[in-house]
Amino acid sequence: MKKIGLMGCGAIGTQIALAIDSGKIPAVLTHVYDASKESAIALVSKLNSKPEIVENSHLLSSHPVNIVVEAASQDAVKDVALSVLQNKRDLMIMSVGALLDESIFDILSDACQDFKKTIYLPSGAIAGLDGIKAIKDELDSVSITTTKHPRSLKGAKFFETSDIDLNSIQTSAVIFEGAAKEAVTLFPANINVAALLSLSGIGSEKTKVKIVADPNTDKNTHQIEAIGKFGKMTFTVENFPDPNNPKTSRLAILSAIETLRKYCSDEIVIGT
Question: Is 31 a catalytic site residue?
Answer without folding.
Answer: no
